[in-house]
Every structure is written in structure tokens, then in C-alpha cells.
Design brief:
heterodimer, A: about 450 residues, mainly alpha, 17 helices, B: about 260 residues, alpha/beta
């Protein structure tokens, strides 16, 4: 919301030793970026993400960045990314939620049991094509309910969120065991399994739909730029220079098209391509038919959740109040905001997002185990914090947290791709977390924010 | 001052507030008329802020009643007070530091578009207009208020009260954090609002502020109202004696006054 780009005049000093020419060039780049009003922090994270991916690409001998790998990475990050959007609002309003991993475990087990035991016992047969939708709806409601109960205790009874959600972490994880008597449950409906994004069960939307989504995204980018300009003209506020508007639009559209093309270079497995060929009456060429798998559902869910929660956070009263409360709880209260209901709503949203993440997790596993979601709270909090959310309250962005989730997952995935064992991955993840936040703290202090 | 109304626009009667066993406000009654500034003075812990916070809805009174335009009203939270056109500028300013001036001015009362989304453009526009009146030099409408100067932050807090057409304005130490130029600006504003017919409660430590601006002065001492006096009928020294001794000026003994060396 705020323009970070305009607030770095002091940094010119530190660049002097590089020579006046470099300094001038950097200043020009910075002024250019300032004119486009891009959030420099987000931009920096994008650069960091790209650097990580390219680094692993080089180290692996040039086969890391390819569609199949990147999509797997993105799908693996999807649950944490989705939950991180809600965690931003929780941390911004000076609370914490340690229970998200256990909510995921509990709802994932509920999805599994609903489809294998409970709904069939109620007479909704395993052969009913809509049974999984009922299970999904009940699970989403369950997640929101659990979040709501915790939120109620925190906001209306006044128990600190750390304690309430620590209790939630323990008791919900224990409840997973009680639900399933310690057994893993498997055998979900094929419709539900699509949520997991595996091409083998129809979890991807195909090349055409992917292009359609890309087209909509391009229109949205252009539409937003035009809307923003019109609003400024309406009230006579300073406008962005035209070149900056065109540059933003062009970069946005090109990026979307490039990503869509990249995704569509991931093809269906051989067997499915053959089926597709038979269905559509195409004779398969000798090398096998190349049919784009398209976007997996988890990535569509990440995009959708990011857009919706960003909208809530920046364009609705709810979000404005969450940030204002984080900045000064007394001010929010004195402004007449119903702060208790506000805090409770952040937890309801968090629970709902956990249930979405749980659906992806259960669908990918084709069931649930006792461990689903374990330690997720740590990754989710790490993603939010790496994404620039401050524990002091009032500061944090949704896209930042989503990027944070992808940065952390890229590190884990890239390291394991290059044969680094999992304890070492944790060492790296921990150090990156501290370095990222340390860098951020240093920057904020220097720019006086 | 001549156009001062006869009927109080706002009356607080027999207000009591207790924290634990301590009576922060003990059976205090004050009122303000339209176009009048009611000064409220007293030492630290006299109960001025607590009294006034029951009027702004920040605190609930344990007993007593509040009347607006002669009718009893119920104020249980800040929304109730705002609905009655009672606006309060708190000593702490009550600003959300991490959001910008328009967001603070409209906090809790945001303008929205037909789709229910925040109309930031309209809010910034309105804030620019009201700021043009209060502090024409103010230009930083899109930076978090944290990075503004004390005077600018004060202007944002005042803009919030002024924009929503307050009829009853409460100002708790409005000049405490300001430099001389800004203090003069706030004083001009108080006179201007008074001429527009608002009823203003002015809380201040600064006896000179109060004497310059108030029409009547209420003195509090340890939670109780000492007296309410017409400004024209007292001297600053008499008021000071009431603040320190907690007695009406005619009740104070010669010895006590002598001890104050006034």
C-alpha cells in the first residue's frame, strides 16, 4: 500500500565507493523503479527467488529449471503458500497461530474419513459422484469452525493467542489419532483427488484453459493499470509517467505469457496422451503425442487465494482494520472498530485456509496419515516472516508471504535435487530465515520505517 | 461568545467511575453549550481524562447520565459517541502509525464504492480538503503517519474530528506536544470551531491556554468537581489555587493562599 520505493534517498552515500558512474546508474535505476511505484521489497524477493533457481540450475548442470520440476516445486509449496496468506493477517494483528499444522492434520483426516466411512455410513454411497463435494464442503466448514473457536477464546475471553493455539496444536494433533485410531486412511474419490494436481487423476486443467487463464490475467493487469490511472485523474492526484504505465503493462503481460508457455511445455504422461489421442480420434505420431497438461489445481488455488486475500487485505474494511489494529490496537478500538470480532474473523479465515491446504495434502496422498501437516506451522510462519511480515504488528503483505513460501520451498527442493540430505536442508532453511529477517530489519532501520 | 446558547448542548450528570476501590471520577456534573469552550483543569490524576473518556465512549461510567440536546443518551462505545456527533481528540492522538493520513482520518468510517471496496481516492480527496483548512503545508498524504512530525500528526487527529461535522468536540491536551507556531494554529482553530457553534471541552494543564480560550472553567481535584466558574469572574491565580488546594476560592483560607505565594 505504501510506496517503499520513494524512501531510499540516504542509500546514495553507501554507493559512493563504487565510483560515481555506477552510483549514477544505480540512482537512475532506482528513480526508474520509483516512477513505476513497484514495491521494492517484493521486487527484491522476486530477484532472490530467480537467483536461487538459477543457482541450482547451474549447479545441477543445467537441468533444474524445466517445467516438470518447477510445477512439482510449486505444488509442494502450495499448502504453505495458501496458509501463509492468512498467517500474515494474524501476525499483522499482533497474534500468532501455532495450530495451523494440526488443523491441517485434523481436517485432512476428516476429509479421508468422510469419504471412506462417515458419509457412506449416512447413506451417501461411494458411487455418488458428488459425495466428495459434500466432504469438501464439510471439511472447509470444519476448518473455519476450529479457527473460529480458537479466535473466540483469543478475542472474547482474552487468552493469549500463543497459549490458545499451542493448546490447539497439541489437542488437534492428538485428535487426529483418536479419529482414525492411529491408522492411515486411504482411498479417496477421484473427483477429490483432482485437487492434488496430479495429471494421472485429471488434476490439471489442460493447455487451453491455461491459456485462457493467462489471457484473463493479462486483461486484469491492463484493466488495473487503467482503473488506477482513472482514479488518479478523477481526483487530480499525481500520475505515474506514461512510459512507466506502459512498461508495467508490457512486463506484466510478457511475464504472464512466458509463464503460461513454460507451464504448457509440461506434457501429459505417455499413457494419458495415448488415451487423449484415442478419445479425440488423433493418430499418435511415432514420438508420442505431446498434450499440454496445463496448470495443476493447487497452483490455481494458490493464485485464487492470493488474489482473494490480497483483495480482503487492501480493498476491504476488514483488511484496513487488521492493519490499523496492528499499528495501534487502542486507536482501532477508539475509532469504534469492533476489534474482538475482527480478531475472531482472522482466525476463521486462517482455519478455512488450513482446510484448503489440507484438501490439497489429502488429495495428493489419496488419503491421510497421522503426520499430515506436522510442523507446517513453522514453515507457514517462516514464509510469512521471510515475506516481510513483522512481529511488531502492522506490517506485512500477502504477495510477500506467498513469495516467501516459494523461496523456502525452492531452497528445500533445489538442495534435495542436488543431493543434499534433509538435515542439511533444515540447517540452510534456518539460516536463510534468520538472514532474510536480519537483512529486512537492517533495511527498515536504515530507511527509518 | 455573545451567541452562546442558553441550553447545554451536552450535559454529564453525577458521573462516577471507579478503578478497583479508587474513585477516579466521583459524582461529577459538567455541561457545555453550543458555541462555548468549557475548560477542564486539574492536576495529574484529577480525573479529567477519565471523565471525558466516558463521554467519548472509551470508558463506561459506573453511574450517572449523559444528555445531548437535553435528551438522555446511552454511550457504551466510541461508535455511540460518534453517532451523536461527539468527536474526541485524545492526548495520545490515537493514530494507527502504520497507515497513511486518509486511512487514519476515516478509520472506522471508511468511504466505500458501490462494490463495498474502499474508495481510497475519495478518502484522500476529502482529507486533502480538510487538511487544506487545518494545515495548508501538509502534503504527505500517502506516507504512514509514523514518519510525520508531531504537529502534522496532531493535524491528522484534528482532521478526523473536524471532517465528520462534530457538534461536541473533546480536546485532551491538544497543544501539549506542539511548538509555538503550531500551538497558535490550534488555538485559532478552536476559536473558529467555537464560532461555528460547536460545544468544546478543552482539557489542559496549561492555565494560560485555558484562560485564553475558555468561556467557563471547571476545576477537578482528586476525582471530584471543585467548582465551575465563568472565566471573566476569576483570575488565573484563583483557578490555580483551586487546582492545588481542591477548594473553592472563597473557601480557601488566607494562610493556605499565603503558602502558595500567590
Amino acid at each position: 500500500m505504501t510506496n517503499v520505493a520513494g524512501t531510499a534517498p540516504s542509500s546514495g552515500k553507501t554507493e559512493q565507493p563504487l565510483g560515481p558512474r555506477v552510483g549514477r546508474a544505480l540512482a537512475a535505476v532506482r528513480d526508474g523503479l520509483a516512477a513505476t511505484e513497484i514495491d521494492l521489497r517484493l521486487f527484491g524477493m522476486l530477484v532472490a527467488l530467480a537467483a536461487i533457481l538459477i543457482g541450482f540450475h547451474i549447479q545441477s548442470g543445467g537441468d533444474f529449471i524445466q517445467p516438470a520440476n518447477m510445477l512439482t516445486l510449486a505444488v509442494q509449496a502450495s499448502g504453505v503458500a495458501i496458509m501463509a496468506t492468512g498467517m500474515v493477517l494474524i501476525i499483522v494483528s499482533r497474534n500468532i497461530d501455532l495450530s495451523v499444522g494440526s488443523i491441517v492434520g485434523f481436517t485432512a483426516m476428516s476429509y479421508a474419513l468422510l469419504q471412506t466411512d462417515w458419509l457412506p455410513a449416512l447413506g451417501l454411497g461411494v458411487d455418488s459422484p458428488f459425495m466428495w463435494i459434500v466432504a469438501l464442503a464439510l471439511g472447509l466448514g470444519l476448518g473455519a469452525f476450529i479457527g473460529g473457536v480458537q479466535g473466540f477464546i483469543i478475542a472474547f475471553i482474552g487468552v493469549p493467542s500463543f497459549i490458545v493455539t499451542l493448546g490447539g496444536l497439541l489437542s488437534l494433533r492428538g485428535s487426529v489419532w483418536l479419529l482414525s485410531s492411529g491408522a492411515a486412511v486411504s482411498g479417496l474419490q477421484s473427483g477429490f483427488r483432482q485437487i492434488g494436481g496430479a495429471p494421472g487423476v485429471g488434476g490439471t486443467v489442460g493447455g487451453e484453459v491455461t491459456w485462457a487463464i493467462a489471457g484473463l490475467a493479462c486483461l486484469a493487469i491492463i484493466g488495473l493499470i487503467i482503473y488506477n490511472r482513472r482514479q488518479r485523474v478523477r481526483f487530480g492526484f499525481p500520475l505515474r509517467p506514461r512510459w512507466a504505465e506502459f512498461l508495467l503493462g508490457a512486463v506484466g503481460v510478457v511475464a504472464v505469457v512466458a509463464v503460461a508457455a513454460f507451464i504448457n511445455a509440461n506434457f501429459l504422461p505417455r499413457g494419458m496422451a495415448t488415451e487423449y489421442a484415442i478419445e479425440h480420434g488423433i493418430t499418435e505420431p511415432p514420438g508420442g503425442l505431446k498434450v499440454s497438461a496445463g496448470l495443476p489445481w493447487p497452483i490455481i488455488l494458490v493464485l485464487g487465494v492470493t488474489i482473494v486475500v490480497t483483495f480482503l487485505a487492501t480493498r476491504r474494511r476488514f483488511g484496513r482494520y487488521v492493519y490499523a489494529y496492528g499499528g495501534n490496537p487502542d486507536a482501532a478500538e477508539l475509532a469504534g472498530i469492533n476489534t474482538r470480532w475482527l480478531i475472531m474473523r482472522t482466525y476463521i479465515l486462517m482455519g478455512l485456509l488450513c482446510a484448503i491446504a489440507a484438501a490439497i495434502g489429502a488429495a495428493r496422498l489419496n488419503g491421510s496419515t497421522l503426520e499430515v501437516g506436522q510442523s507446517d506451522e513453522l514453515y507457514v510462519i517462516a514464509a510469512a516472516v521471510v515475506g516481510g511480515t513483522s512481529f511488531a504488528g502492522g506490517i506485512g503483505t500477502i504477495p510477500g508471504a506467498v513469495l516467501g513460501a516459494f523461496v523456502m520451498q525452492s531452497l528445500a527442493y533445489g538442495l534435495s535435487y542436488n543431493g543434499v540430505n534433509s538435515p542439511t536442508q533444515n540447517v540452510v532453511a534456518g539460516i536463510v530465515l534468520i538472514v532474510a529477517v536480519g537483512f529486512d530489519t537492517y533495511n527498515r532501520r536504515r530507511s527509518g520505517k | 461568545m455573545k451567541e452562546r446558547g442558553k441550553v447545554p448542548i451536552c450535559e454529564m450528570r453525577h458521573i462516577r467511575v471507579a478503578f478497583g476501590g479508587v474513585h477516579a471520577v466521583d459524582d461529577v456534573s459538567i455541561d457545555v453549550r453550543a458555541g462555548e469552550v468549557m475548560g477542564l483543569v486539574g492536576g495529574n490524576g484529577a480525573g479529567k481524562s477519565t471523565l471525558i473518556r466516558t463521554l467519548s465512549g472509551a470508558h463506561r461510567a459506573d453511574s450517572g447520565e449523559i444528555l445531548v440536546d437535553g435528551k438522555p443518551v446511552s454511550i457504551t462505545n466510541p461508535r455511540d459517541a460518534k453517532a451523536l456527533n461527539i468527536e474526541c481528540i485524545y492526548q495520545t492522538l490515537a493514530l494507527a502509525d502504520n497507515v497513511d493520513a486518509p486511512a487514519n482520518v476515516f478509520l472506522g468510517r471508511e468511504l466505500t464504492t458501490a462494490f463495498g471496496t474502499l474508495d481510497d481516492g475519495a478518502m484522500e480527496d476529502a482529507t486533502r480538503k480538510v487538511m487544506g483548512r487545518l494545515n495548508p503545508n501538509f502534503t504527505r498524504f500517502t506516507t504512514p503517519v509514523k514518519s510525520l512530525s508531531g504537529g502534522q500528526r496532531q493535524a491528522v487527529a484534528i482532521a478526523r474530528a473536524v471532517h465528520f461535522n462534530a457538534r461536541i468536540m473533546i480536546m485532551d491536551e491538544p497543544t501539549a506536544a506542539l511548538g509555538p507556531a503550531e500551538t497558535a494554529q490550534v488555538r485559532d482553530l478552536i476559536r473558529q470551531l467555537k464560532n461555528e457553534g460547536l460545544g468544546i471541552f478543552l482539557i489542559s494543564h496549561d492555565i494560560h491556554d485555558v484562560f485564553d480560550l475558555s468561556d467557563r472553567i471547571a476545576v477537578m481535584y482528586h476525582g471530584k468537581l471543585v467548582d465551575t466558574v465563568e472565566r471573566e469572574k476569576v483570575t488565573p491565580d484563583e483557578v490555580l489555587a483551586m487546582i492545588i488546594l481542591g477548594k473553592k476560592s472563597e473557601e480557601a483560607s488566607r494562610e493556605e493562599l499565603a503558602e502558595l505565594k500567590i
